[in-house]
Amino acid sequence: xxxxxxxxxxxxxxxxxxxxxxxxxxxxxxxxxxxxxxxxxxxxxxxxxxxxxxxxxxxxxxxxxxxxxxxxxxxxxxxxxxxxxxxxxxxxxxxxxxxxxxxxxxxxxxxxxxxxxxxxxxxxxxxxxxxxxxxxxxxxxxxxxxxxxxxxxxxxxxxxxxxxxxxxxxxxxxxxxxxxxxxxxxxxxxxxxxxxxxxxxxxxxxxxxxxxxxxxxxxxxxxxxxxxxxxxxxxxxxxxxxxxxxxxxxxxxxxxxxxxxxxxxxxxxxxxxxxxxxxxxxxxxxxxxxxxxxxxxxxxxxxxxxxxxxxx
Length: 312
What we know:
By secondary structure, this protein is α/β, with parallel strands linked by helices. The protein contains 14 helices and 10 strands.
């Protein structure tokens, strides 16, 4: 299964983290922006070209030490079709460098519409009788609050194409509790119930390391709930946002891991992308600044959880 490949990359690099690629023009060094504007003018084409050059520099600097990247689709969509092209090119470039790619799209629909999302991001599109990948990510974030009708169309694609999904369970934003912490008639919270659904949905696509192809998004800003869900969803791999810029640290994310140091991949976006601005280093050193921050994050987390082992 897809998460088997991710787990193997985590063990190989001894690094349970993912670098979020959520670029804005404000994050990009001026020499990259100036070059794009000189070539394309002040256009969406220039913005998309700058994003791609910036992303490639980050990927080149990170690919041997960070197992995965997570481009957030919205940051590309806001630059029009040119930005969406950069998303596809970023996915392809990262995969060519051996990285596991999680597209953060939080897609949510039912029936044939959800099948179309699954085909676009994880599967192969039929183009005049030929099958081709439109985006080609390894995993996709999805919103499960339409229930099984919104998840089932993804499962067949995940099984056939060796891909995975991460379902929103307990998100890192401050107001998540307004809905997710509410108690249901069963006495369980909404997020606990969603975690149970993830365990059930993943039963047919189990991997060899004890985790299914249906993961869960559980935020670092709620460490108690992370520990609770790790216990109650033992076969569900966690994607954990909220580290770094949102306030989460190594102690906060530690409850997400199992006794082998597996079970979670921790995301940092701005902390890595904008490390050169925080360091106030030369802008031409932006990619190496990202690498330094990624190593610092890896070392901080691994010092807390210990050696990562895969027992297949």
